Every structure is written in C-alpha cells, then in structure tokens.
Amino acid sequence: MKTINVDKAASKGLAMGKAFVVNKELLVPDTYSITNDDVASEIGKFEAAVEKAVSQLEIIAKDNEIFAAHLEMARDPFLYDGVTDKIKSQNRNVQLALEDTINELAAIFESMDDEYMKERSADVKDIGYRLMGILKGVNTSGFENINEEVILVAEDLSPSDTSSINLDYVLGFATELGGVTSHVSIIARNLELPALVGVKELMTTIKHGDYLILDSHSCKIIINPDEATINEYTELSKEYKARKEELQALSGLPATTLDNRTVKVYANVGNIEDVKRAVEKGIKGIGLFRTEFLYMENTHFPTEEEQFEVYKEAATLCPEEVIIRTLDIGGDKSLPYYEFDKEDNPFLGWRAIRISLDLEDVFKAQLRAILRASAFGKVKIMYPMIISMEELNKANSVLETCKKELTAEGIAYDKDINVGIMIETPASVLCVENFAKHVDFFSIGTNDLTQYVLAVDRGNKKIAKLYDSFHPAVIQSIKRVIDAGHAEGIEVGMCGEFAGDEDAALLLLGLGLDEFSMSASAVPTVKQIIRSTSYEKAKEYADKATSVYTINEVMNILKEAKENL
Fold first, then answer.
1. CA distance 443 to 133
2. Closest Cα partner for 485 from 495, 496, 477?
3. Domain extent listing, the chain
4. Element (H, E) at 186
5. Does domain 2-24+142-225 have CATH number 1.10.10.10?
6. Cβ distance 126 to 156 under 8 Å?
7. Which position among 70, 183, 318, 431 bears the catalytic label?
8. CA pair distance 66, 467, nearest whole angstrom
C-alpha cells in the first residue's frame, strides 16, 4: 500500500476502483523538406485536414460548448494564416508549420495571469493534436477499451480525449498535469466526480490495473490499499453519498443563517453556457461575468452588437442579477489580432481598465452593449483594477457619454444601472473609504489581491506555498473593504477563489460579506455552511481570526468554527 498526497483537489469526492492508465501517443511531425513547387500541395493537405476536423467537430459541438469553441478555432483565420504563411514564406512542410503555429497560439494563453485563461492553452493544443492526427493518418483516441468502471489516470486529458470516453464508466480522474481550472477539472466538477490534478510522478507510480482509492476530500490517492483501509473507505463512501444528496436538496434554497441573515451566493461564469448551467442548478445570479472570452475567442475586437446579444441573453436567463466585468486583459493576456508591447513585468503592466481607458472606442462598444442589455434584466457594471479616483472618474465619464448617445438614439437602458469596482490591489484597499462614496458596490478579487498584498507571484512554483489568502494581511484587507463599504451603505461581494473555499465561508460570513461568487459546483457546500450557523456566531470567530498574526492561528480558529457547526 502506498499513498500519494496532493496539494489541492480539482473536484471533491471519493472513488474506489481499478486504474485505467492512458499513455497518449506522441505525434511528432515529419521533417521532410519542401520546395516552392510543393507549397500548393502542402496547403491543400492542411485545408483537407481542417475540413475533416470541422466535420468531426460539427457532430460533437451541438451540445457541448467546449467543442463549439474548438470548432471556431479550427475555422479561425488566424490559425489558417499562421500555417499557410509558414508554408509559403519558410518552406515548412504542413506538419511542421502546424506545430509551430499551435505552439505560438498556446504560448499566448500560457503567458496569462488568469488561471482559467491559462488553462485554455490545452484547448489550442487539442485542436493541434486533432489536426496532426488527421495529417499523419493516426487514430488519436486511446479509450476504446474502457468497458468497466475505472479511475482514469493520465498525464493530461484534453476535450477530445473525454469526448471519446463513455463517462458512465468513469469513477474519477487523476492527472499529472493541469490545474483546478483545466478541462478535466471542469468536466469532473460538472459530472460531480472526484479529480486530483497536478499529481507529481503519477505516471511512474501508478500501473494499469492497480486498485486505487481517490480521496479528493483529503487530497490523496491510496494505491493497492489493504483490506482494513478498503473497509474504512467503504463506510466513508456511504457517508459522502448521503451528504451529497443532502446538499443537492439545499441547492435551490436561500443562503440564510439560523438567525435570519441572508446573503447572496452566486456563480462566476465565462460564457452563456456557464450561465445556463448555473441557472439549472438553482443559482439565481452571476457575481462575475468574465467578458475576456468574447475577445480571446475571436478574430477581432467583438462589436457592440455581438456583445449585446451575449449580455442580453445572460440578463434574460438570470432571475436576480448579472455583474458584468469590463474587459480584463492585457500585458500577460494577449489577443491574436492585437499586438501588445513586450513588458518586463506584465503583472504590473498595461492591463484591465488601463487598456479600456486608452482604447476608448473598444471600451465604448462594450459599455454600450452592457447598457443596452440592462433593459432586459438586472445588470451591473464592474470595472477591474481601479487604483485611483482619476481612473474611476474617467471610466464613468466614458459611461456617461454612452448613456447620452443611447438616449439620443432612443435606445432603452437602465438609467440607474449600478456601477462598482473590483478591489484587488493594495492601492484600492488603502483608498477604499473614499471609493465607497463614489460607487454602488465593491467586489473583492482575492486572486490578485493576495498576490499583490503578499508580493507573491501565484504562478511561481518555487514560492507557491507563500501564496495564501488566509494570511492575516489579506484577511485584514478584506475586513477593511467590507467595513468601508458598509459604512457608506453599499454592498460588498467577493468573486475570487477564496469565496468558494469552504474553510473560508464562516470567516467571510462573520466579516459581513454580502455576496459570495464562485464556481457553480461550490455553491451547495457554501450554502449549507451558511445555513448551518448563526451570523452572530460567525462574527465571534471572525473577530478572533482578525486578532491573530499567523496563518496557523487563523486556521486553528476556523477549524474550531467548522467543528462547532
């Protein structure tokens, strides 16, 4: 018996069964040379491969937004131009030209700060793998032999991989690569299956057919357990199943404490399909609509009309409200159709509201689209990375111009639309009392706030252990923001990953957070915690947690709080 411990679970759950180890075939491009006379033929091969890939994807994209995005990528002129230009100008054969172009596109996503966007590089690589397989005449699926219940073990799993699996046979996932926002993590959460990703030395430790216990609650994999351990986990599995059924029954109920304080528990989304899934789960509002995807998955800056249709549908779908964050891109988040200057430190560079204020026409198109959508439901506007009143005033000035234009054109919109800002930098925390006088709400972005307050690059593996939102400095910052907002009578929410952390739920409730926004799969657990305690009791623990000076002291207080639920 051997145990592998993992830092963080991608999807909570418990599974027991045989390991099905997938060793994906490496597709190495042929290195043959071509001359000018071969250029047309090589381009023809690529066009035929794209045509075949499109025909495959059209079938599976109808009911799957991931493959719908893949279909768009396969048709993307940027991909076509990249490959054909390398064939024409560099005399690269089609396979080498495809590999180079896919690597360039994937690098754009991998350089991004946002973990969700960073993981989208896997989608680009997946398209490349599909096209390379077609060019080489290789069947790229390795899952035909799954005909019994198994735990899938792989270096990584792409959307195309999972499309060829009969998921009825899958008990859970374990991968050596990937993060909590990777494709396999999203699939696992949607299917409510356990998943552990980023498991070091997974592929050299687990053999095909090994019996595994995948415990993503305790973040560990037990390989070939003894009988006593199997019996122990059999009982734990029954308890988990009963708890899961209990949580599902609570999903449509309000997040109201035992002493009748009600808070909002909303979802973070990146597209309309995410909105639909959230609403189907009984989630009534969206605390963060990331609009970057409209820009990233496009060949041009999306037009006002293109954005309006998306925002309108989101507003129509949600019973309560949709908070739309304006474009949060730049520096480390590139666009295939816009060239950004190289920056030595993109985390502190030209990004988010700084870009919007400089590219005013792009900003206006987005604001007009959001305003128009506000006529169809409760919509709020949220500016990211605001650090000064000058920025806030300038952004609002552009918004006022858009309102005047729409009024003159006779186009309906919510004239009293709420405008808020993300609090995600030390500057915004230090100026929060003044900001509270000039906005309608705050949303705390703990991913960046933690990084900036602690001066820890969350993408740097060498110092990853230092990145911790339970650090007293981060907690004190959160408390200051909530207190300042409430002093001016405005609502304070949170849309960073911390909002969905069940260990943080009682702390945030006790600090007075009004709105929690998280991945849809985390909502039932957070709701259950809130419904199981009183606000007054949570305040007592929050007061204790904000009076200590080490992470260990904070965690011990919160552990006691959870045990006393």
1. 45
2. 477
3. 2-24+142-225, 36-136, 255-563
4. helix 183-191
5. no
6. no
7. 183
8. 30
Q: Where are the alpha helices (DSSP H) in 281-413?
A: 292-296, 304-317, 353-358, 360-373, 389-409
Per the annotation, the verdict on 183 as an active-site residue is yes
Nearest CA-CA partner of 463 in 472, 451, 474: 451
Cβ atoms of residues 20 and 167 within 8 Å: no
Interatomic CA distance for residues 410 and 400, integer angstroms: 15
Please, are residues 182 and 122 in contact by the beta-carbon 8 Å criterion? yes
Whole-angstrom Cα Rg for the chain: 25
CATH homologous superfamily of 36-136: PtsI, HPr-binding domain (1.10.274.10)
- Measured from the Cβ of residue 547, the count of other Cβ atoms closer than 10 Å reads 11
The angle, 0 to 180 degrees and rounded to 10, between the axes of the packed helices 472-487 and 551-563 is 70
CB atoms within 10 A of CB 425: 20
In this predicted model, what pLDDT tens digit does every residue of 150-170 receive, in sequence order? 999 988 877 666 666 777 889
Given a contact cutoff of 8 angstroms between Cβ atoms, the answer to whether 210 and 19 are in contact is yes
Terminus-to-terminus CA distance in the chain, angstroms? 35
Nearest one of 11, 8, 28, 5 to 152, comparing CA atoms: 11
d(CA 117, CA 110) in angstroms, rounded, equals: 8
- Give the helix ranges, DSSP H, for 225-334: 227-250, 272-280, 292-296, 304-317
Joined together, the tokens standing for residue 67 give 């493959």
d(CA 533, CA 79): 53
pLDDT tens-place string over residues 351-400: 899 999 999 999 999 999 999 999 999 999 999 999 999 999 999 999 99
Q: Structurally, what CATH architecture does the domain formed by 255-563 represent?
A: Alpha-Beta Barrel (3.20)
Structure tokens given for 12: 């909570």
The β-bridge partners of 152 are 20, 173
The two three-digit tokens of residue 428, written as one number: 């915004």
**Cα(299)–Cα(544) distance, rounded to whole angstroms?**
51
Q: Which range is least confidently modeled, 132-146, 217-231, 520-534, 546-560?
A: 132-146
State both tokens at 75.
């048709």
pTM of the model: 0.71
Q: Is 525 helix (H, G, I), strand (E, B) or coil?
A: helix
Q: State yes or no: is 495 an active-site residue.
A: yes
pLDDT, position 22 = 80
List the catalytic residue out of 318, 402, 431, 495: 495
Give the strands of the sheet with 150-154, arranged side by side.
2-5, 220-223, 211-215, 14-22, 150-154, 170-175, 195-196, 9-11
